Amino acid sequence: MILVLLVVSAIALFLSFIYVHQNTLRISLSVIFAALLVTSIVFVSKNDGQHYGMVKTTTTTTQSLKSAGSSKQLDLLLYQSVGTADKHRVYIYKKTTNQKKVSHTTASVKTANQVKTTTATPKLVTKTTRWTYKSNAMKFWFGLANNDKQLIKRTNYFYINKNWVVLSTTQAKQFSKLMKQQQATLKARAKVYVTNQVKAAMVKNPTMSKAQLAKVQKAAAAQYQANAIQSMLKTVKASK
Question: What gap in Å lies between CA 133 and CA 52, rounded to an integer?
């Protein structure tokens, strides 16, 4: 409405100055419409530059966080660097396990991302701050500027467990490639490792039952796999 008042007062000032011939009336109308015009310009400027009539409003949303990868053995939070200095990142994740297309954060200077460790269930907490009008009256006067709910900043907090791994998309591709390249070798080495662990366990306890041996085999296989994954992750992280 303030923009309408600005236009109307400008037109009225012009018409009164040109078409009103009676001096006293012309001067009076000109002063009134000039005052309205100047006042409108001032408040439009204050609304645009200083967000006059507005307040900062922050909302918080929480959603579940799932691994961006398809592997059941490794929980991944991926990111893609924006620019060459790695000052800004777009994080890639899933909201549900069966989600086919991954979600990602916004690539914007107004969006910040923080990764935090938690012992609770992984989650994504987003805090969004916007400019909103103080009242319906303020929205009535300045709403035509179309700046209601203008974004000030958005911060995404990724709460992940210690077993999660944060990799760039490039590192994730390198890791996947390395896994495929070493698959046969790892399988053979895993077999030897498990065999040695079983032998060592039998030396300590020759009377172990089949169930106990199976438990040792399973634990040894899981341990070798975890060690192998950590070794490959160390390699891809070092390469950057």
Answer: 9
Structure tokens at 168: 């760039």
Q: What are phi and psi of 61, to 5 degrees?
A: -125, 145
Q: From CA 128, how far away is CA 126, in angstroms rounded?
A: 6
Contact 111, 156 (CB under 8 A): yes
pTM of the predicted protein model: 0.80
Burial 190-228, CB ≥16 within 10 A → b, else e: beebbeebbeebeeeeeeeeeeeeeebeeebeeebeeeb
Give the C-alpha separation, 40 to 46, whole Å. Answer: 10
Q: Secondary structure of the chain: what % helix, strand, coil (to 5)?
A: 50, 25, 25
Among the listed residues 75, 84, 157, 160, the one whose alpha carbon sits nearest the alpha carbon of residue 120: 160
pLDDT tens-digit series, residues 10-50 = 999 888 888 888 888 888 998 999 999 999 999 989 998 88
DSSP letter at 94?
B
